[in-house]
Fold each of these.
Amino acid sequence: MDKVTGIQFESLATIGPTGISRALSYAHENRAAFIRELMDFIRFPSVSAGNYGAVSKCAEWLARHLNHIGMERVSVIPTKRHPIVYAEKANSPGQATVLFYGHYDVQPAGRHDAWQTPPFEPVVRGDSLYGRGASDDKGQLFTHVKAIESFLRSSGKLPVNVKCIFEGEEEIGSPNLGQFLLNNRALLASDMALISDTSMPTPDKPAITCSLRGALGIDLEVSGPAHDIHSGIFGGAVRNPLHVLCGIIACLHDKTGRVAIPGFYDSVIEWSRQARDYMAKTGPSDETILKNAGARTGWGEEGYTLYERSTLRPSLSVTAITSGTDTARGANAIPASAHANLDIRLVPNQRSDEIGRIFHNYVHAVTPRSVRTAIRIRTAAKPAVTSVSHPGVQAAGKAYRLGFGKRPVFLLSGGTIPVVSMFKDMLGIETALMGFALPDDGKHGPNEKLYLPNFFKGIDTIIHFLGTLAIHNRNDDGRRDDH
Amino acid sequence: MDKVTGIQFESLATIGPTGISRALSYAHENRAAFIRELMDFIRFPSVSAGNYGAVSKCAEWLARHLNHIGMERVSVIPTKRHPIVYAEKANSPGQATVLFYGHYDVQPAGRHDAWQTPPFEPVVRGDSLYGRGASDDKGQLFTHVKAIESFLRSSGKLPVNVKCIFEGEEEIGSPNLGQFLLNNRALLASDMALISDTSMPTPDKPAITCSLRGALGIDLEVSGPAHDIHSGIFGGAVRNPLHVLCGIIACLHDKTGRVAIPGFYDSVIEWSRQARDYMAKTGPSDETILKNAGARTGWGEEGYTLYERSTLRPSLSVTAITSGTDTARGANAIPASAHANLDIRLVPNQRSDEIGRIFHNYVHAVTPRSVRTAIRIRTAAKPAVTSVSHPGVQAAGKAYRLGFGKRPVFLLSGGTIPVVSMFKDMLGIETALMGFALPDDGKHGPNEKLYLPNFFKGIDTIIHFLGTLAIHNRNDDGRRDDH
C-alpha cells in the first residue's frame, strides 16, 4: 500500500449514531479517571532537550497505556535520540484511515521557582490542571487517546481506521521524524492526519488552525580571545565577543520593528484583503494578544495587526544568550565566546535555505574583523497552510459544532508543527489541526495549564470527528462549514 | 593603639643577616612540602560566588595551618557571608608592623570540560602547578605563609611584627571587609600592608604594582512580558527584552571603542608624558598583551597603547547575559526579562556614585518605553595608586633584587584589589603590591596555573622583604630603588 487513497466517505459505516452516543457516555462517566491518568502522564519529565532516560520512560508508559486501552501493534520505535510510539487499530480495509499525531515530549520547565507548584507534580486548581505539558501536548494528545478508548471500551471497535504516531522530539524540532516517515510510508499510509497541538481563542470560541509558520533555529557564535580573560586586566584593550554579539543582534531589526536583513521579506506572499478581513473579524484583537502575552504594548512591523504580525508575517526572535566557559554571574571575565539562539518563523513562500544564506551574509557583513562568527542551522521546518475546503477539515468543523455547540473559526497560528509539512510532502496527506489549548495556557512558560472543560469537550469533539468521518460528510443542519 | 605609627626602620633588629640566611635555607629545603601543602589548599573549591560550606572549610584549614606553623591569636572570624582568617605574631612593640593581606576564595571554575585537568584537583605539569586559585590568590598568599614559617621554624621568631588577614570574599567584591576593618582598627593597626595578588610581566622581570583600577559591578535588567512567552505564537508582535538589552549594550561604546556614556571620561586624570614614557619603556607591548589575552587584534580607545587602555583608562565590559526563567538552549520562548552583568573599571578621579548615576541616565534615555529597566550596583571599589617613594615600597624593591636578582619595574594594573583603597582610607596605611603571578596564568579562566620558580623566588623575596624592613632601609649597593 504505497499509494495513499482518498478519504472513503462513502464507505460502510461500522459505527452509527448509537455507537457515538455510547462512546460519549463512556467519556462522560470516566472523566475523573482520565484526569488521574493524564496526571500520571505529566509526571514524567520528558524534556526532549534534556536527558534521554525520562523521555524514554514516558514513551514506555504511553505504549503500555495504548496497549491497555486496546490498541494494536503498539511499539516504541527507537530513533537517533528519543523514541516514537506507534499504535494502530486499522483492520477495516474499506474504511477511511486517520493518522493521529501528538508529542509526548515537553519544553524544559525553566526555573522551578517561577512555578506556583512544581512543573512535574501536576495539580488541579480551579478548572485547570497545572503542569509542564498539560496543554503542550500531553493533555491534547490525551484527547485522542481517550476518544479512542471511549469507542473501544463501549463498542469494541473504532468508526474508522486509526494509526497513531506520538513523537518525543517535537520540542527540539523533530530532527528524526522525517526519516521515520520516509522509511515507513507503507505502514503510515492514511487518508488524512489529525493533530491537536494548537489553541482556540477563548473557551466558547472553537477554532481550526489552517496556517502554521515554519521555523528556522539558528545558533550564532562570536569568538574572540582564545580563552576567558580577566575583565580588569584586559578590559578596554581587547574586543569582547559579548559586545559584538549584542551589536549584531541590535542591527537585526530596524527601528520600526522590521527585520533589517536585506531580502528577508522578498518571497513573503501578501494575503488578500478578503483573507485579512476574515482575520480581523474572527481573530484575536491586539488587546487580546497583549493580554495573553502579559505585555503592555505591541511591537513589530507597521501596517499589520498584532495577529497578522505573528501569523502572516515572518519574525526573528533571540531566545537565549550564553557566553564563555563560565556563565556564573560572579565571574569577572571577558568571555572567549558568546552564543545566541535565534528562532526565525517563516511564512509562505520563504525558504529556510535562502533565509539561512542571507542571514549568514548579513552577519558576515556587520561583524568586525577582530572576532570570528560561526552560524549553525539547528532546525528547519516549513510553513504549512491547510485547505479549509478539505473534506477532513469540514468534518472537523462539524465535530466542533457538536462538541462545543459552536461553529469554529479558522485561525492562523504563529507557531510551528514541523510534522504538518512533512505529512504533506512525504505522505501526501492534509492535516486537520483541532486544537483545544487556550492562549493563556502558558505553553513554554511557567505554570502551564490545561483548562479541563476544554479537555472534556475536546474528547467529545474527537469522538464526533471520528463518527462524522465514518457516517458521511453530510451536514445535519444543511449548512456548509466554510467561512 | 588607635593611631597607626610610622615605619620603625630605626628600631632594634631582632633578626639579622644570619636569621635571613637560616630562613632561606629552610625555605629551599622544604619546597616539596610547600607544594604538597599548597595542593591541599587548592583542593578546597572555595568559590565565594558559590556555596558557603566549601569556603568555610577552606578557612578552617587555613587557620589550622597558620596555627601549625606557629602563628598566634589565630581565628576564623565570621562575616555576613564568608569568614576572615586572622593571625598574628606581633609581640615586639618596638618593631615595625606589617599587615599581610591575601584571599583564599577563588573565582568559579566555569565549565570543567575547558580544563585539561579538573580545577580542584591540582597537578604539577612541567614547571607549573595547575588548579583554580593556583595563582589567584592561594599560591601567592602561600608565599607569605611559607616565608613566615621559614623564619619561625628556623629562628623561632619574625624580624618584624606581622598581622595577617586572609579574606574569603575578594572575588565577589569584598562586601564585608570594609565593616570588618572599621570595627577592628585597633587590632589591625600597622605601619604598612603587603599584598601578593598581582603579576610580573615575565619570569625574569619582577614588578611592583603601583596602580590599580577601581571596579563598579552593575546588574542591568530589562523586563517585558509578564512571563516567558512562546516565540512562535508571539514572535513579531511583542518586544523581546533580549533584543532591547542587546540594543542598550550596543550603544555603550562608539565605533572607535570609546565608552559612549556622556560624561564617562569627564573626571579621568591625564597622566604626564614622563609617566607614559616610563610605561612605554617598562610595561608590556601591545603584542605581549595580545599574546597573553590570546587575541589577534587590539581594540579600544584611540591614542593609547593597549597597556594604557587597560590601566590608565577606564573600561566597561559586559561579562554575562542571562534571560527569562529558562536559560536552556532548547526553549523557544521570548523571555520575560533579560539580564546583563557589567564590569566597569574606574581610574582616578572617577567616582563610582557619579558613574553609576550617568550610567543610569544613559540607559534610561536609550530604553524604549515598551519595556522597563532596573539597575543595581553590585559592587564598588575605588582605584588605588601607591607612592613609589614610600619606604615600604622601596624595601620591596630591594627584596626583589635579592630574591629575583633583578631590579623590579613599577607596573600599573588594570585589575582591582578593593582592600588597597580601604587600607588607605580606613587604616591610614600604604600597601606594597608584590605580585608573583604571570600574565598567562589564566586567572579567572580555565587551566589557571602557578609558575613554580616564581613561587619559590616569591617566598625568598618575602623573606628578604621582612629582613630588609627589620635591618634598615640602607641599600647595600649604594643605589636608591627608584626609577
Note: The radius of gyration of chain A is 24 Å.
Amino acid sequence: MKKVAVVGYGNTKFTKEVIPIESLLLESTKKVFDTTRNLSQDLVDGVIVSTNDSSKYLAAILSELSGIKPKVSHTVEHLCSSGTNAVISGFSYIASGLVDTVLITGADSVGNPGQVLEWDKSRGEFNHPIFWASLFTKAHKRQHNTSEEELAIVSVKNHKQAMDNPNAYSHNPYTISEIMNSKNVTDDLRILDCSYPCSGSSSILLATEEFAKKFTAEPIWISGIGQKTNSASFTKNELPTLSSSIMAANDAYDMAKINSKEIDVAELHDAFSVCELMAVEDLNLTEKNTGATYIRNLFNTENRKINPRGGLIGAGHPLGATGISQMIEITQQLQNKAEKRQISNAKNGLVHNMSAAGTSSTVLILES
Amino acid sequence: MKKVAVVGYGNTKFTKEVIPIESLLLESTKKVFDTTRNLSQDLVDGVIVSTNDSSKYLAAILSELSGIKPKVSHTVEHLCSSGTNAVISGFSYIASGLVDTVLITGADSVGNPGQVLEWDKSRGEFNHPIFWASLFTKAHKRQHNTSEEELAIVSVKNHKQAMDNPNAYSHNPYTISEIMNSKNVTDDLRILDCSYPCSGSSSILLATEEFAKKFTAEPIWISGIGQKTNSASFTKNELPTLSSSIMAANDAYDMAKINSKEIDVAELHDAFSVCELMAVEDLNLTEKNTGATYIRNLFNTENRKINPRGGLIGAGHPLGATGISQMIEITQQLQNKAEKRQISNAKNGLVHNMSAAGTSSTVLILES
C-alpha cells in the first residue's frame, strides 16, 4: 500500500447565509490552489466532491469551474460522514497506485437535505436528530449520573475554542449558565447543546509520497483508517454507546500501530454535547465512566486537546464539509500551524466523524 | 497493486414500472447472494451504491436491508457513469489492500433526476440530452456522410440483440423502416434512436485474488482502467468525437497492456445511435471514418461483438445501474455464460460508460 499524505487544504467561513453549492465548492478549492506551492490544475488526477446536496454531476462542474480535467471525478454521499468517506476513497485511489493526487472538496448549504432520515417511516414525527440525541442524553444521565452542568461544559468548551477559529460559525463565548438556561428543544436537550447545520466548504489535497515533496515541506500522513456501518436505523443502537465508533477506532489504531494514549489531539463528532462525552470513552481517549470528568479537566486547564477548532457545536456543521474540515484542523495542528488553537508538540492526531445517531462511523489517524 | 476480480453479480429486469429505490437495490443484491457460492453477509467488507436518486444514506439502508455490516459504505454519483465510477472506487479499495471484498449496487427508477443538466442555465430550454445527441448526429452526417439508414442499423441491431437478454427493457424486433419512420423528436433524432430511462438495478461483487477462489471457479479480472472528465458543459466538445472516451480508452489499453484489436466483446454507451458510431472509432475498435460500415457488417453477419445485451437502446438505461449492468454482461461473456448472446471464445472484454454528452468517460478492460 502506497503512503498517502495531506499536502494542501482550504476552508471557507462557516455561515448561516444560503450560498449556491457550486460557489461553496469553488471557494475552498481556490484556497487550496492559492496556498499550495507548485500546484497547477494539470497536477490534479482526481476530484471527489462530498455533499448531501441533490444537484448532480457536481464533481465535473467543480472541475470545469476550477480548470481541472481530472481522471477520477464523482460525488460521495453518506450523510454527516460524507467527508471522511470521500477522504478514504481518495486515499484508496492513491494507495492502490491508480493516481498520484486527489482533491477532495466537501460542501453543504443551509437548508440542504441530509439532516433528517426521510426514509425511516417507523420514526413518525420523531425523525429529526434531536430525538436520538435526547435518547442518548437521557441514557447517559441514567447510566453515568451525568449532570446538566457536565453536558453544558462540552458546549461551553467548544464554543470557547471556536473563538480562535476564524472560520467558525459561532464566535459567542457562552457561559455555563447561558448554556444550561438555553431553550429546551426536548426534555433532555437544550438548543445550545446542538451543532448548527450551516453553509460551508472544506477541501484537502492528497498525494503520494513522491508528489507530496513537490507541494509541501510538511506532509501529514494518513496512517490509520477505520470505518463501520452497523445499520441505518437507530433502533439497533445500544445506549449510550457509539458501537460503530468503537469498531472503527480499533481498526484505525491497529492500522496506525499506535495506542489511543498516543493521540495528542482529536476532532470528535460532537453533533450534540452528549456525543463528545460518549466519543472520548468509545475511542478510549479516557477510561470508561470518566468521560464527563475528563472533559471537565480539559476545560478547567484550558487544554484544547479535544475539538480545538470548536467542534461541530462551535464551528458549525455543513454536513459534507465537516469531515474534511476536521482533517484540516488535525493537519494544521500536526504542522504546528494552528495559531492560537495550537496544541504543543502534537505528533499524532485523530478524526472521528459519524452519521445518523452513530449508526456508522469513521476514525482516521494522522501523523506528522 | 493487488489484482481485483468480479466474482458475483445480479440483475433485475429493466422496466418502465416506478419502483422504490430501496426495493431495486435490494433485489439485485439478493441475486448476488442467491448465485454466489460461499457468500455470506459477514464476508462483504464494502457496500457502494451507485445512483442518481436523491435519497440519502442509501448504502447504509441497503446494508441494513440485506443484513450486511460493512466497513466502507457510501453512495457514488456521476450521472450516467455513476456505475463505473462506483466499480473503480470498489476496485481501488481492494487494490490498495484496505478491504478484501466490495459489493457495488447501482439502481435508478423511472422519473429519477440525472437526465437533464439542471445547473446549466446557458442551455435554456435545450438542456435535455436529445439536443446534444442531435448536434452530434448532425455533425456525424456532415463529416462522415452518415445516412439515416446507417443510424437506424445501430438501433435495429441493439433492439434485436436485446431480444436474447431476459432483463432487457425492450423485446421488440424493430425493422430498419420502423426505426427510420419512428417519430422525430428533433430534426436529426428519431425516438427509436434514443435509449430509454427506466427502472432497474445491477450488482457486482469484487474481491481480491485470494477471496475470488472462494466465490467462483471463474473470476474475471479488471485489467485496465481509464477515466477522463473534460468538462461539465457540452460547449467544450469537438463534434462528432468523444474526446474523453479517447483518453480513457488509451489509459485503459495501456494499463491492461493490450491492443484495441484484441478486444473480443464490448459494451458501448449507446445513449443514442450516433454514440455507438462515434465510440467504435474513438475506442479504436475500427478505423477512423469506418464506424457505420463496421456496424453494418456486424449486423449483416449477425456478429454480436458490440453491445450483445442490447446496449442502452435495447436493454434500457436506468442511469446508476447501467455501468454495472455492462460489467455483468462482459463478465458473463468471458465466463462463457452469456447463453444465446454468447460471443465464441471471448478472452478480453471492454466496458465504455459516459456522462453528459461524453464530457466524461470511463473505459474498463476485463479478462478471463
Note: Chain A touches chain B through 57 residues (CB under 8 Å).
